[in-house]
Amino acid sequence: MQEAESDSGGGTRIRSLEMRELECFLVLAEELHFGRTGERLYVSQSRVSQLLRSLENRIGARLVERTSRRVALTALGARFLQQLRPAYGLLGDAVDEARAAARSVTGRLRLGFLGSADHRTTAALGLLHARHPQVETAIVEITMADPFGPLRRGEVDAAVLLLPVAEPDLVVGPGFAEQPWTLAVSAGHPLAARSALSAEDLADCRLIAAAPPAPGYWRDYQAPPCTPGGRTIARGPAVTTLQEGLANAAAGRGGMLLCRPTAEAHARADIAFVPVGGLPPSELAVVTGGGHGSALQRAFVRAVADSAGTVRPVPAVPGPC
Fold first, then answer.
1. Which pLDDT tens digit goes with each residue over 61-70?
2. Which positions, given as ranges, span the membrane (predicted)?
């Protein structure tokens, strides 16, 4: 709480009033006993005296008369109590209402997802609904070719996207657990019979990648242009959606790197999913627009953090081969 006080220059000087001092005075005015006041406030009797003395120094006059036999309010103390009690009550009501509003998150969250909304995303949504039953959600698919556009255009409030996200106007929140990559290839592809692949083996396969306007660094993370050893990886078809990529892989037009949960969710007889080692892991994270976001957005970010993991470093943007 603050009081305004005019200085000698005619301006206004703001001097703070400690809430603990005001609370102490209100309790002391009820109890008229320093010991009982200290017990109610869980402080020592000497601390009650200190708080009262500090408040009186700020005001510039005595508020309480204390003798060996009794404690009583001065005339000024009685007038101050009459004015302070309703103001202090209103302040408490304002704080209580703000707390209730902060806990009561309502509204409609439009959540974008990339490729497939698997159990990790739905678990976070389930926790959000459990905490805030009045919240409504709409789940919207985001294309591989335009992962960030829906956020910028306001078509979604938050999105679960593949990292890295190196966009200055977007905020990367908590991520789900890191996942290894698998290579989706036609069942008849030479690599389909392998039990596992190394990153260097990708040079023997054209990689299907997202189409523009997805940023180049983001497309290259999912379909690297070269192996860690520097071997060139040929680029296959550019696709707009996950389903287009799977269709091209099944048709033998190239291979597509997918995280393991996505591969498991899209098992089919005409595609083999072969684990790939030696690549930086795949990770999904919740992404929102810039600024502090709405209470609903923050509630979903907390749900992701609590249900699926913690804030992780953003994967580095790959450099040139």
1. 999 998 878 9
2. none
CATH superfamily of the domain spanning 107-177+283-308: Periplasmic binding protein-like II (3.40.190.10)
- Which pLDDT does position 320 carry in this prediction? 62
Please indicate whether the domains covering 2-103 and 107-177+283-308 agree at the CATH topology level: no
Distance (Å, whole) CA 218 – CA 14: 52
Give the model confidence (pLDDT) of 206-252 as tens digits: 999 999 999 999 999 999 999 999 999 999 999 999 999 999 999 99
Backbone angles phi, psi at 282, to 5 degrees: -90, 140
Q: Does domain 2-103 bear CATH number 3.40.1790.10? A: no
Q: How many residues does the chain have?
A: 321
Distance CA 284, CA 121 (A): 10
Domain boundaries 181-277, CATH class = alpha beta
